[in-house]
Amino acid sequence: MYFTAETLATNSRLRAHWDSLWGQRNIWDRSHQMMVNNYRSAMDQETLVANALAGDGLGREFWAEIDRQIIQMRDQEVGIEIINDLMSVQTILPIGKTAKLYNIVGDIADDVSISLDGQAPYSFDHTDYDSDGDPIPVFTAGYGVNWRLAAGLNTVGMDLVLDSQASKMRKFHKKRVNYYLNGDSSIQVQNYPAQGIKNHRNTIKINLGTGAGGVNTDLPSASQEALSTFFTTGAFGQAARDNFVVAYDILWVSPQIMANLNKQATVTINGATILIGGSVMSVIRQFIPAKDIRETFALKDNEFMAYQRRQDVISPLVGMAVGVVPLPRPMPQNNFNFQIMSAEGLNIKRDDEGLSGVLYGANLN
């Protein structure tokens, strides 16, 4: 989802996105020079200074600073760690894709014959298909610098651009995180709704509340024994077994749940509760079907999520990595405006037996 030396070296489709991004930046350079040359004789000295750019345009050093800041800020938004963790299983797609569709293989006759001559009757039917899919919406945001303050985007102007970008990038990432977690009810492509990890139709859900279907479990306050039961023979462990998951790659928990897991472990001897070395986590960790347990402030109170980090289970859909392009300046008095843009969605699958490797638990009443 980001242009880095590593991702560009390993993904040809992402390199095509990078070439397209630079194509737009080069178009701006040429159009800006044409505008300045067309109106040079009519501009006063102050306007000329405000529109003067070194070389033929904004230049590689300018964009290196812009792109460097994008990478630096990718870890600074609450919840972005979840998206970053899924980057290893992302699916890069052409920008023209507005949804990623896939087939679900249906059932077929189960008549397998056992005989000596191999001539016993059996059918020659074929499987049926169903389909599913997820939208790939475009995320956009803008920021600008006043043409007089920019002074040709010199050192002061560059600082103003970077400070403005940093402020807007935080809001941009906040919107992205919310989409990956909760989707967007206003987005739908070919009857496929835009859903996030928490509410995706293919996410297995555990109602931790007390209402209908709830398991009545408050993980931030549960006892050591209750926690052990929940993650093994209880709802969490049962969901893993029901979906043939030996172990989830990551279990994300709220700070409140993590605080309870980090409490000092105890043991009861002759009716007396005695503190022992280590945390509750260290005592029950080996029994939880999850390879890694991490805390995230994107979840609150009685809330957790887990997934198998596999492309056939969950995958960010990237039609355009996060990038910045300048917008045209038809007149010398137009501000220097920039657009942040990405095209991305989230794909969560169930297999033909309805099994899923993504799990979400919360008070769902």
Give a short overview.
With 365 residues, this protein is of the alpha+beta class.
What report would you give on this structure?
The protein has 365 residues and is an alpha+beta fold. The protein folds into two domains: 5-102 and 133-195 and 312-348, 2-Layer Sandwich (Major capsid protein gp5 fold), CATH 3.30.2400; 204-310 and 354-362, hypothetical protein PF0899 domain (hypothetical protein PF0899 fold). 33% of the residues lie in helices and 25% in strands. The protein is built from eleven helices and 15 strands. A five-stranded mixed sheet has the order 7-15-12-8-11. Strands 1-13-14-4 form a four-stranded mixed sheet. Strands 2-3 form a two-stranded antiparallel ribbon. A hairpin with a 2-residue loop joins strand 9 (264-269) and strand 10 (272-279). Helix 4 (59-72) packs parallel to helix 7 (155-182). It is elongated, with a radius of gyration of 27 Å. The protein starts with a helix and ends with a strand. It comes from Limnobaculum xujianqingii. This is DUF2184 domain-containing protein.
What is the topological layout?
Blueprint: H1 5-10, H2 12-39, H3 45-51, H4 59-72, H5 80-85, E1 91-92, E2 99-105, E3 129-135, E4 138-145, H6 147-150, H7 155-182, E5 184-189, E6 192-194, E7 204-207, H8 224-231, H9 235-242, E8 250-253, H10 255-261, E9 264-269, E10 272-279, H11 280-284, E11 293-295, E12 304-307, E13 314-326, E14 336-348, E15 358-362
Parallel strand pairs: 1-13, 7-15, 8-11
Antiparallel strand pairs: 2-3, 4-14, 5-6, 8-12, 9-10, 12-15, 13-14
Helix pairs in contact: 4-7
Protein name: DUF2184 domain-containing protein
Organism: Limnobaculum xujianqingii
Pfam families: DUF6260
